[in-house]
Each structure stands twice: as C-alpha cells, then as structure tokens.
Amino acid sequence: MLDDFFVRALVAGIGLAVVTGPVGCFIVWRRLAYFGETIAHSSLLGVAVAILSDVNLTLGIFFTATVVVFIVFLLERREGLPTDTILGLLAHGGLALGLVLLSFFPGVRIDLHALLFGDILAVSRHDLLVIWVGGAIVLGLLCCLWTPLLLATISNDLSTVESRKPLMSKLLFGVLVAAVIAVAVKIVGVLLIVALLIIPAATARRFANIPETMAIGAALVGVVSVAGGLFASLQFDTPSGPSIVVAALICFVLARIPIVFLKGTKQTTQT
Amino acid sequence: MDSKILVDAQNIGVNLSNRWIFRHVNVTVERGQVVCIIGGNGAGKTTCVRTLLGLQTQTEGTVNRASSLKVGLVPQKLEITPILPLTIRRLVALAGKFEDQEIDDALSAVGLDELGNPSVSTLSGGEFQRLMLARAILRKPDLLVLDEPAQGVDISGVEVLNRLVLDVRDETRCGVLMISHDIEMVFDIFDDVLVMIPHEFDQLRYSNAA
Ligand SMILES: Nc1ncnc2c1ncn2[C@@H]1O[C@H](COP(=O)(O)OP(=O)(O)OP(=O)(O)O)[C@@H](O)[C@H]1O
Ligand SMILES: [Mg+2]
Q: Of B100, B108, B185, B191, which sits with the fewest C-beta atoms within 10 Å of its C-beta?
C-alpha cells in the first residue's frame, strides 16, 4: 500500500498534522507565530549547513534551528532589543546567509521551489519513519511539558513561584518547534509550515473550553485539511502544499460561519 | 535563620534603568504573621514583593527565604489571552495535583461555588480575584502573598476576604504578605505594616504586635 506515492503522502501529512495541531496551540497561545516563522526561515541556513558538513538534510535543519532558538533566548535576556526585532534579524539574516553560502557551491543543485513550498508527493518510506517516530517523540515530550508550559503561558511569575521552571520548559518547547519544522520543511516547505501550526489551532479554538480539547481539535482539523488538500490537489492538479493550506483555511472559515448564525438566531429569539 | 522566619530582607534596594525604585527596605515575615505593605501608586510595592520572592534580583541588600518555601501568590494583574480556552476549575487545577473535593472546598471558601465551571474570560474582575485567591490557598502555602487582593472586590467582599485570610492563617499557620494601597482595608488584620512612599527611601513602619 505504501508503494503508492499518494498513500505515502497521505500518511506523511496525517502524521505531521497530528503533531502540528497541539504544538501549534502553544504557538498561538504564546504568540509565537513570528518565532515559528524565524525558525522556518533559518532552515535555509540549515540546508546550507547540511550540505557543507555533509549530513542528512533534516538533521542539518534541526541543528541550525536549535542554535537559532538558543540565540533568540540569549538575545531576549539582554535588555534593549524588542523580540520582533531579534526575530526579524535572525529570520532574514538566516535566510540570506543560507542562500549566500549555497552560492559558493555551484556544483550543488538544490530545488529551491521544493524547499519553499514542500513536496509531499515525493516522501519516501524512510521519510515516513522519521515523521512518525519523530512525531511520537515530540508529542511524548510535549505531554511531559504540558502543565509547566501552560502555567508559563499564563504567568511567568506564578510559574516561577510554583517551581515549574518556566525558562526550562520554554527552551525545551523551542527545541520541539525546531524539530517539527525540520521534519515539516520537506512536506509543506519553509513558507507554508507556520500555516499548518496556526490555522488548525485557531480553527479549534471555537469548539474548545479547555486547552486539552483545543489541542485534540487542532490535530483533527489538521488531519482533515491534509486529507482534503491532498485529494483536491489530485482532483484539480493543484500544488499539494498550498492545497493543504487552502483546505485548512476553508476549515477555519467554515468553523466560524455556523456560530455567527447561531448567535444571530439566539439574539432574535431573545428579543 | 530562625525556623519561624519565612522570608527576611535586610536593607534591600532595586535599581531599574538607572533609577532607584526603592531603597533601605527591611521586611521579615514569620510563620503566623500578617505583614502588610501599603503605599501609593508607583511606590515600588509590587517590585519589593517580587524581590522578596526571588522574581526580581535586588541591586543591594540581602534576601533570605526559608528552604523549600511553598508560596501561594495572587498577582496584581494577570491577563490571559482570549485564544487560550480555560475554565475556572482548569486554571485552579494548574496549581498542582488536587482532589476534586479540595478544589470544591477552595472555590466555596471564596464564594465561587455557585458559579459552576464557566470560562475564566467571562468572570468579573472581583470574581477573577477571588478565583486567584482560591488557587493560592489550595496550595496550602507556607507564605501567602497577595498583591492588592481587594481590587475589584466589593465592600462586603473586603471584609470576607480579610476574614478568609485570617482563617487560612490560623488554620495553616502560614505567613501572609499583603499589599494594599489603603491602610483602612488592612487596619484590622496586620501584625506589621511597611509604608512605602514614592521617591522617598525612608520607610515608615508600625506594628500591632505589642
Ligand atoms: N522593569 C521595569 N523597568 C523600569 N521601571 C520599572 C520596571 N518595573 C517597574 N518599574 C517602575 O517601578 C516603579 C514601582 O513599580 P511597582 O509596580 O513596584 O509599584 P507599586 O507600588 O506596586 O504601584 P501600584 O500601586 O500602582 O501597583 C514604577 O514607577 C514603575 O514604573
Ligand atoms: Mg503594584
């Protein structure tokens, strides 16, 4: 069954969505969208590093992204620079540096389009293994971090006073984001990965009253978007990565409509 | 350090961005004591308490805390982003591992038991303040720290709140450190009070202890 490229794409995308849902929830709760964007952009530097040091692409991206996470934390601790300035510096600095470094190696051919927009239809069996095993590890770690991270999201002071080590859990979460992005770049690409983190989480907010249900809902929305996007891309011959994101966007819009209607009817019955 | 002493600060001062927020402050909280800090806006009360808890490093002086001191904190303000769904019971439960019954008891102690389990974003200011208090006492802390707990709480609520704080103190023999900007609110309950005055570095103190 896994011989079929479409089935492999589906299995890969679902594996990814199950992880980006819960991780994405923390991204939106902690307003880390630009942070995610920075990590994603820096993966171009990661690609250059991987090629220069002749290691696996995913490992190279993960390693570089982790370094970027630590740099963000170090710079943030020093007063003076606002966070979005630091992120902008690293995002575009990393991107530019990666492209410049790669140009020194004219023999190296990289598929920039695949890097920017992903190529889910090209995933191999080995990629599937990386996605599912890596995904399981990330989800496991996120479960362990769940409560401390949630409290750190609500209040740094409370979290410190209650001995939850907020800095440690935030740093570890940053490393988890680096891992997710390193794996996801191959599938949806540098430019679209953050959409897969944010849109399902934002969609699930409507139906959740506690954080845990929102995380599960985000995973489900992600899975539906991946399946919907992939089938649509097959049907209409559209690019797969963007199709998945558009499917997620449609889920988001659909999720908002019924509630607006419900509210409308409620108000009319009240008056 | 005396085993009754929970936290002790000697001659502490904090300087932020080249400005002294406060200086020459001495505070000691012992088990079973209610210590209040009062003063106008910007006098440095919150910064002082954060320093006592180790959330802010002091520029001068020394702070000693009892080892493995368990703190229950009600912060002055807490903004929870609306995209984070949170019910009141879930927020309270984040304080640690508790039985449902314990959570019920804490919620009814602050008079929130009739409310059910609504989303925190729907609470009024005073209700939220009570919720944070419930959360803090649920932890059975050694030191209960309240940063303007009476804000948004109605007049009868302030008496109930003071009563509750004293009850918790009597029951658990914890120390209480409480900030208020109004001495009348805390007049009946303090053992020790520190008055901080903005831009003045000589604090006044009174004691009810004698
Ligand atoms: N991180 C900071 N950097 C610079 N100044 C600060 C910082 N935090 C607080 N301040 C200043 O310290 C002073 C005291 O602040 P603090 O919050 O401790 O006052 P407060 O006594 O609690 O006031 P209020 O009654 O309004 O709560 C204020 O003037 C504030 O502007
Ligand atoms: Mg204050």
A: B100
